[in-house]
Amino acid sequence: MAIVLKDIAKAAGVSVGTVSDILNRGRGHLYSQETRRKVLEASRRHDYRANRVAQAMRSNRTGIVGFATANTTTDGMLDNQTAYPFLVGLNKRLTGAGYHVGMVELAELEQGQTVPHALKERFYDALVIHYGLTEHAAKFARQMGLPLIWWDSGIFLPEGCICRDETAVSSELTNRLVAMGHRRITYMVGESGWKKYTAGETVHYSYAQRFEAYRAAMHDHGLRERVFVGYDPETCARHLADQKVTAMIIQGVGLSIIPEALSILGWRLGRELSVATLDREARMDTKGPLVGGMLYDRFETGQMAAEMVLSMLRQPQNPVSSVRIPPRFDMGDTINPILPSSSQ
Questions:
Q1: What phi and psi, each to the nearest 5 degrees, are found at residue 195?
Q2: Which positions ≥6 away from 90 have C-beta within 8 Å?
Q3: What Rg, from alpha-carbon coordinates, does the chain have?
Q4: Partners of 329 in the beta sheet?
Q5: pLDDT value, residue 343
Q6: Nearest-CA neighbor of 262 among 253, 270, 250?
Q7: pLDDT at res. 189
Q8: Edge-to-edge strands of the sheet including 226-229?
Q9: Within its chain, how far is the Cα of 56 from the centroid?
Q10: How far, in Å, CA of 298 to CA of 300, rounded?
Q11: Which of 10, 15, 69, 119 fits a 20 to 30 Å CA distance from 291?
Q12: How far apart are CA 286 and CA 279, in angstroms?
């Protein structure tokens, strides 16, 4: 015999409406922790399974939140690995509230005037959108009538956005290195991105924010910015030696050519050269030396985005204020204060 809400209510000693709110309507936040515990334990004991189809028909909601991001490159390679910890955090919090996450390809939102089937049929109750939409598609997304959360999207509005403050991140990292005695700090970039940036072409918003904050911080200290472009170890070694560089800022945690360049010079990582990253995922292990610099807890950010979604769904009349993720620093294994004998 199928278990129904009335059975759970009797076992938990609460009303059917309370059980429905907690198990089916995503309104558990209205009740005490003890009441939620009793209902959830009773549902587990009786192996209660909600009828999602019936719920959707009654509430006009599917219990599914879409996550829109670019998953593959144009040549079919997997892309955007940094979205994974965010997605795990988003899913963990939403699942705990009775929702599930569905993946949406950004390409689905780039189809001109054609509305994707999943959106036309109101398959999602809300959307969380990552970076990559064109301005046209972003406008289209806003017109769909769904609650929207923009994560690290390059869209900065007073409401509905959650993003890392890349300007503050780069500025703090540069200032910390200067405070440790570093004066000759170089900024490492790839050739293609640098060409686009210096030509005034469109680049990822964080690319410009990071470099310009580094440059401004250096100037504030009366220091000159230095840029190393490319990934050739011999050229890198010459740059480090000629410029007497004591610290290098990189974008991620991949040391790339740096160990080989240091080997050419006979330098040691973290001694003659400190290496600091602008972006190290806070909850994922990395092989080799733990690169010091600025941490980004995307798992936690995903949970914060989920809270914003839930707030929008529970109280659609109340706007949800945007959130900027502040800087967070870690010394790691690759950053050290300048040695007293080093020439500046």
A1: -60, -45
A2: 65, 67, 101, 128, 302, 303, 305, 306
A3: 25
A4: 294
A5: 46
A6: 270
A7: 95
A8: 226-229, 185-189, 247-250, 274-281, 292-296, 329-330
A9: 30
A10: 5
A11: 69
A12: 13
Residue type at position 50: A
pLDDT, tens only, 20-38: 888 776 677 788 989 989 9
How many Cβ atoms from other residues are within 10 Å of residue 180's Cβ?
A: 16
What are the chain's domains? 5-59 (1.10.260), 64-164+298-325 (3.40.50.2300), 166-296 (3.40.50.2300)
Q: What is the pLDDT of residue 288?
A: 81
| Residue 302 dihedral angles phi and psi, to the nearest 5° | -60, -40
Euclidean distance between CA atoms 28 and 23, whole angstroms:
8
Whole-structure pTM over 0.85, yes or no?
no
The values of phi and psi at residue 102, to 5°, are -120, 140
Which two tokens mark 247?
A: 């610290």
Task: List the strands of the sheet with 323-325, edge to edge.
Answer: 100-105, 64-69, 126-129, 148-151, 161-164, 323-325
Q: How much is the pLDDT for 59?
A: 55
Report DSSP state, residue 152. Answer: S
In contact, 89 and 302? CB cutoff 8 Å: yes
Which residues of the chain are modeled with pLDDT < 50?
57, 342-344
Question: Which backbone phi and psi does 266 adopt, to 5 degrees?
Answer: 75, 20
Signed CA dihedral, 62, 63, 69, 75: sign only = negative
The rounded distance, in Å, linking the Cα atoms of 290 and 200 is 34
Q: Residue 190: left (phi > 0), alpha (psi -120 to 50), or beta?
A: beta
Counting Cα atoms < 13 Å in the Cβ hemisphere of 68 gives 23
Distance CA 291, CA 205 (A): 23
The two structure tokens encoding residue 132 = 């990559």
Cβ pair 130, 70 in contact under 8 A: yes
Q: Give the H or E element holding residue 209.
A: helix 205-220
The angle subtended at Cα 23 by Cα 21 and Cα 27, nearest 5°, is: 35
Q: Residue type at 304?
A: M
Query: For the segment 239-266, what is each residue's pLDDT rounded down to a tens digit?
Result: 999 999 999 999 988 888 999 999 999 9
Q: Are 206 and 166 in contact (CB under 8 A)?
A: yes
